């Protein structure tokens, strides 16, 4: 079932949580984000494929190599983010999107608006981070 949303639609607390309109909204948001990341990755590949480093000056050459290394790290993060977006889209499809993986409680619209790939409620995320700090200090 394809739902057409008005261009100014924003999910509201007044609606039933993760109703078909909200799911369609977050699906579109995730798909746009994914498309932007893939476009940027394509631009990076295109610019890197335009030949080797031609700077004669060692300092310039080092600067270009550093920039490329940084760009590759950024692309690697983007690749991992695309994977998380794909997982979120699967949750939209199977009806689990928007619900905490630990508690099953709604994650909340504000959190999903800020981080559409969130899998934990704020409370569960804070517990998780506290446990990480405790175990990291061991």
TrEMBL record:
<protein>
    <recommendedName>
        <fullName>RNA polymerase-binding transcription factor DksA</fullName>
    </recommendedName>
</protein>
<comment type="function">
    <text>Transcription factor that acts by binding directly to the RNA polymerase (RNAP). Required for negative regulation of rRNA expression and positive regulation of several amino acid biosynthesis promoters.</text>
</comment>
<dbReference type="Pfam" id="PF21157">
    <property type="entry name" value="DksA_N"/>
</dbReference>
<dbReference type="InterPro" id="IPR012784">
    <property type="entry name" value="DksA_RNA_pol-bd"/>
</dbReference>
<dbReference type="Pfam" id="PF01258">
    <property type="entry name" value="zf-dskA_traR"/>
</dbReference>
<comment type="similarity">
    <text>Belongs to the DksA family.</text>
</comment>
<dbReference type="InterPro" id="IPR000962">
    <property type="entry name" value="Znf_DskA_TraR"/>
</dbReference>
<feature type="zinc finger region" description="dksA C4-type">
    <location>
        <begin position="100"/>
        <end position="124"/>
    </location>
</feature>
<dbReference type="GO" id="GO:0005737">
    <property type="term" value="C:cytoplasm"/>
</dbReference>
<dbReference type="InterPro" id="IPR020458">
    <property type="entry name" value="Znf_DskA_TraR_CS"/>
</dbReference>
<feature type="domain" description="Zinc finger DksA/TraR C4-type">
    <location>
        <begin position="95"/>
        <end position="130"/>
    </location>
</feature>
<keyword id="KW-0479">Metal-binding</keyword>
<dbReference type="GO" id="GO:0008270">
    <property type="term" value="F:zinc ion binding"/>
</dbReference>
<keyword id="KW-0862">Zinc</keyword>
<dbReference type="InterPro" id="IPR037187">
    <property type="entry name" value="DnaK_N"/>
</dbReference>
<comment type="subunit">
    <text>Interacts directly with the RNA polymerase.</text>
</comment>
<dbReference type="GO" id="GO:0010468">
    <property type="term" value="P:regulation of gene expression"/>
</dbReference>
<keyword id="KW-0863">Zinc-finger</keyword>
<feature type="domain" description="DnaK suppressor protein DksA N-terminal">
    <location>
        <begin position="22"/>
        <end position="92"/>
    </location>
</feature>
<dbReference type="InterPro" id="IPR048489">
    <property type="entry name" value="DksA_N"/>
</dbReference>
<keyword id="KW-0963">Cytoplasm</keyword>
């Amino acid at each position: 079932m394809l739902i057409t949303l008005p261009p100014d639609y924003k999910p509201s607390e007044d609606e039933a949580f993760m109703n078909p309109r909200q799911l369609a909204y977050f699906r579109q948001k995730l798909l746009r984000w994914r498309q932007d990341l893939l476009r940027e990755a394509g631009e990076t590949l295109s610019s890197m494929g335009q030949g080797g480093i031609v700077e004669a000056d060692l300092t310039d050459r080092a600067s270009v190599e550093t920039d490329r290394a940084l760009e590759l790290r950024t692309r690697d993060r983007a690749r991992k983010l695309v994977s998380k977006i794909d997982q979120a889209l699967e949750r939209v499809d199977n009806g689990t999107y928007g619900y905490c993986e630990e508690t099953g409680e709604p994650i909340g619209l504000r959190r999903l608006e800020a981080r559409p790939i969130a899998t934990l409620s704020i409370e569960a995320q804070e517990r998780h981070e506290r446990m990480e700090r405790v175990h990291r200090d061991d």
